[in-house]
């Protein structure tokens, strides 16, 4: 079993917590309050901009040309995802240029950027992989029973798409290629998954307001 596979298997508690969170389940059946999704789209746009920056930092620090190219390729994938969010933003009346990051968002982005600046590229890949792998997992799980025709169907289709799956595998290959210490890798990976759960929870709390 590769390091990336081990990390995923060792953190299934947070994976299941995200899958079963009412925010994600509300996306699954289309019942999520539109305010919650609009909030999420805005926060995710801010997050993805930081995600792209972290990839770019990792590219600059990559110890070999292959890593440099792959991190830039992955940054390009994030920019494409940001374009999707701009389309969402227009639909939900969100101005992604005027987003104020909330505490859960800021904790996550600060963690990613601090890791990218302060750690080697293997640990940076470990910090970034959970987002990609989790979203791929959520997309495939929510699509298992068929994707309904509702307002969040495109979100599920995006992360169930095989092209997105290929990007996830590309990033996991970098984790395995640079093979950081398992203790540090586990700490980064687990904290990122905790941030993902908290990210969904922050949007869901609008439902309870």
Describe this structure in words.
With 209 residues, this protein is an all-alpha fold. It has one domain (3-208): Heme Oxygenase, Chain A. The protein is built from 10 helices and no strands. The protein has helices spanning 3-10, 12-19, 22-29, 34-61, 65-92, 103-118, 121-143, 153-160, 162-178, 182-208. The mean pLDDT is 92.
Summary keywords:
Heme Oxygenase, Chain A; 209 residues; mainly alpha
Q: Secondary-structure blueprint of this entry?
A:
Elements: H1 3-10, H2 12-19, H3 22-29, H4 34-61, H5 65-92, H6 103-118, H7 121-143, H8 153-160, H9 162-178, H10 182-208
Helix pairs in contact: 1-10, 2-10, 4-5, 4-6, 4-7, 4-10, 5-9, 6-7, 6-10, 7-8, 7-9, 7-10
In brief, what are we looking at here?
The chain is an all-alpha fold and 209 residues long. The protein has helices spanning 3-10, 12-19, 22-29, 34-61, 65-92, 103-118, 121-143, 153-160, 162-178, 182-208.
Fourth-level CATH superfamily: Heme oxygenase-like
Profile the largest sheet: none
**The CATH C-level class name:** Mainly Alpha
| Structural class by secondary-structure content | mainly alpha
Shape: globular
Helix tally?
10
Second-tier CATH architecture = Up-down Bundle
Strand tally is: 0
- Share of residues in helices: over 70%
Beta-strand share of residues: under 5%
Domains (count): 1
Uncertain runs with pLDDT below 50, 5 residues or more?
none
Would you list the SSEs in sequence order as H and E?
A: HHHHHHHHHH
Radius of gyration: 16 Å
Look at the structure and give the mean pLDDT.
Answer: 92
The rounded distance between the terminal residues' Cα atoms is 44 Å
Give the CATH topology: Heme Oxygenase, Chain A
């Amino acid at each position: 079993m590769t390091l990336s596979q081990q990390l995923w298997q060792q953190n299934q508690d947070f994976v299941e917590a995200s899958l079963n969170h009412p925010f994600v389940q509300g996306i699954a059946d289309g019942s999520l309050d539109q305010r919650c999704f609009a909030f999420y789209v805005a926060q995710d746009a801010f997050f993805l901009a930081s995600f792209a920056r972290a990839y770019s930092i990792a590219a600059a620090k990559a110890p070999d040309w292959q890593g440099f190219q792959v991190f830039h390729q992955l940054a390009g994938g994030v920019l494409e995802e940001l374009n999707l969010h701009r389309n969402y933003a227009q639909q939900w009346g969100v101005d992604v240029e005027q987003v104020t990051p909330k505490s859960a968002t800021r904790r996550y982005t600060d963690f990613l950027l601090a890791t990218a600046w302060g750690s080697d590229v293997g640990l940076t890949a470990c910090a970034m992989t959970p987002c990609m792998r989790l979203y791929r997992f959520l997309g495939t799980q929510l699509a298992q029973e068929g994707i309904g025709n509702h307002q969040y169907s495109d979100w599920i289709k995006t992360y169930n798409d095989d092209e997105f799956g290929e990007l996830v595998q590309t990033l996991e290959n970098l984790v395995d290629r640079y093979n950081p210490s398992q203790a540090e890798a586990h700490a980064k990976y687990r904290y990122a998954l905790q941030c993902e759960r908290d990210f969904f929870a922050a949007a869901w709390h609008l439902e309870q307001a």
